[in-house]
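Query structure, 108 tokens:
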């Protein structure tokens, strides 16, 4: 399980870093031997990937813990469905916020 999380984070890191590098405008008047990849673009890509990956993995962990507890509570008292759903939705909101923050970092 841990290696799957690590692999997911590495793939996300690579995809977001390559997206940031592709979005970086080419340097005007760059020499033929130089690339147009700047350290700012790579740094933004790495930051966005790290924020996105950690937020999504954290949200998945939270949903797993809260969801199992919510199902256990609903098994005993079915009227707790709405309250349990609110807690699971709050945990899932972490993933949405992390994804939005990663996009904001990439667009800066």
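Result returned for the query:
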């Amino acid at each position: 399980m841990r290696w799957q999380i690590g692999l997911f984070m590495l793939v996300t890191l690579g995809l977001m870093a390559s997206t940031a590098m592709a979005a970086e405008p080419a340097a005007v008047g760059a020499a033929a031997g130089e690339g147009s990849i700047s350290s700012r673009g790579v740094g933004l890509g790495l930051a966005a990937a790290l924020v996105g990956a950690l937020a999504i993995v954290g949200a998945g962990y939270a949903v797993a813990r809260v969801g199992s507890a919510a199902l256990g509570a609903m098994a005993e008292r079915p009227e707790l469905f709405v309250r349990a759903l609110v807690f699971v939705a709050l945990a899932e909101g972490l993933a949405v916020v992390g994804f939005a923050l990663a996009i904001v970092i990439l667009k800066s």
